[in-house]
Every structure is written in structure tokens, then in C-alpha cells.
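Q:
My hope is that you can spare some time for a protein that puzzles me. I hope you can help me see how the letters and the C-alpha cells relate. Thank you; the sequence and its C-alpha cells follow:
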Amino acid sequence: MAEILLVTGDSSADQYGADLVRALRNLGYQEEIYAAAGPKTEAAGAQLVDNLVDHAVMGFVEILGSLPYYFSLARKLERLVAERPIKAVIMLDFPGFNMRLARRLIRHDVSIFYYIPPQVWAWGKNRIKKLRSWFEQLFVIFPFEEDFYRKHGMNVKFVGHPRQKKWSEKIPQDIHSQLQIDPQKNLLAFFPGSRSQEVDRHLPVMVKTAEQLQAQYPHWEPVFSVASSGDPDKIKNQAKQFKLWSDDSHSLLSATGLAVLASGTVTMEAAFTRTPMVVGYRTSWISYWLARWMVTVDKAAMPVYIDETVEIPELLQQQFTAEKLSETVGNLLKNPQKIKQQKAGLERVVEHYTGLDPADEVARAILDELGLKKL
């Protein structure tokens, strides 16, 4: 027997974990797949050991209150690996927990893989030696990462981005029709974040910005994304004067002329729909200054690292105010040529991902490492 354990606490990676479980099954893998992940991975057929996604927090300060839970879960997963015939552990994103778990698991007879490893090219380069020593193979989702990790002596493979693969096959819903918006109006979408603490910090600024822009640009209709993994009730209450979209982000981004985003995975989602964007983010001051001290890159929007010619306005921390955000977005709305130029840059970003199926690539590589046959 060669069972598998999958670990992630990130809400986006929970979907990627679900895709990977299905890919393994499609290739004929029949053994048990355990998961410390979330409901999507469980629904795909994994046996959920713990709902790690529900405990996810961001920020150096914010994570302190969850430390007892994480220590307990790490011990629980190590016991599982010791007691079960688990031969492969697949870690997805969530490096704060996964790197510490890997340190425990290398003492056992198990191969450890990292799908979406820590972005050590951006911060924490002291982890390079650990990644090289502890992991059988890294599966990366940004094309420039393959060269970076390979130069540091790692077994690495660029597999594409799971969100691009899924969205390239999806037909978006008609937002104008569903929300009863005049089809002549352009949509201005706001994405305050996928975590409750992100919504707390971003939503008030975005609501005030939407109010100002709606008055100045009546032919643009503000629409707020109500993320299921964020704080939907708070968004519904504070942004109730605007149109609210509670369904998939793909449909909203596809229909949007310009999006205002909290930095994160959603910046790549916008790139994959060729949606021009303005990016903003605010965290606690302590977390921000610790990040400034540790991080060696200065951009929050991921598409600019894939194509450096893409110009995406960013407002971070103290710059993220309603006044500055309204001004930045307004400058784009008044200059359609700038929006057109950003769309062209995002098209170049998408070209790197065309034709790739990440879940299938990762599943095949892992089964090869385990010496298991594939259908």
C-alpha cells in the first residue's frame, strides 16, 4: 500500500487540492488520500483529518493566537504518517505551517512534495537549503520560478496555474443580466479579500471609493464580490447600496472593465481574464513592518513578475485610503488607453500558461516517484 497525505490551510489551495485528488483518481490511484485541508478537498474524495482551512489567518501578529492549534495538528499528522502506510506527503502553499511540518516528517520513511512552494525568491532565502534537502520535487506555478529553484539545485517543474486551466474551460455567467444592470454600463468590481481580517481592513475604504466614483462616473457600475471564504455578511451589510455578486469570481472578472483588488491570488485570476486592475492591501502595522524588513521584492501584484512591462497601480498600507484609491482608479477611467495597454500586457502573461494542466502534471509526477502505474 502507498497512501497519500495532502496538506494545505489556504482557501485557494483547497480547490487545487480537490483538483489534484480528482487527477490522481483519474490516473487510477485507488489507495486512501488523507487531507488536512478544507471542504473542497474533502468533497473531491479525500478523507479529511482536520479542516485546516477554517483556521487560516494572515500576518505575523495574527497567527500567534492560533499557535496551539497548529502545534497540536502537526503532532497529529506526524502520528498519522507514523501509523499509516503513507508514502507521499503533498504540501500545497501555506508555508508557515507546511515547512514546520516537513521538518517533523523527514524523520519518517515518506517522500515529501511541495506544490506551490514558498516564494523564497521574494523573502526567506534561508529556506532554500531546507527546500533542497527536505523535498523530493517542487511544482511551481510561475514560469520564472523554475529557473530560480533549478539554479539552487532543486528538482523543480513548472506545471502552469490551476486557476488558469479551470477558467479557460469555463463559460462566464451574464452578470449584467443576473444583477439587472444596464448593458450599456461598464462594471467596476471590488474584491475586498477572501479572509475576514482582510475584509475588515479593505471594505470601508472600498465602499467609500465606490461611492465617490459612482458619483463621478455614472456610466460605471460598482459591483462587490462577496467571497464565500471571507465575511459575506459584513460585505452585504456595509456595501448594501451597491450590486453584490455572491457567485464565482471568474464571471465577475470576465464582465468587468476594471477591478479593484486586495493583493493575492485574485491578481492572477484577473490576469487570466485579461481584466485591468488596481491593487491595494493593508495589514497590521507590526505585520507590515516585519514584512518590509523580510521581503526583498517591492510589488504585490504577481503578473508584473511574469511580464515586467505590465503596469499595475498599487496602493499599500498607508497609501490605501479612499482618497488615493479614488484618484488612482479615476486616472484609469479617464484614460482608456492605459486600460488598453494593461490588457495587452496581461495577454502576454496568459501566453505562458496556455495548454498546461497542473493537477495532471503533479499527479503523474508523484505517481512516477512512487513507482505506481498510471492509466
Q: What stands out?
A: The CA atoms of residues 283 and 317 lie 7 Å apart. The mean pLDDT is 90. The longest helix spans residues 196-216. The chain has two domains: 3-160+356-370, 175-351.
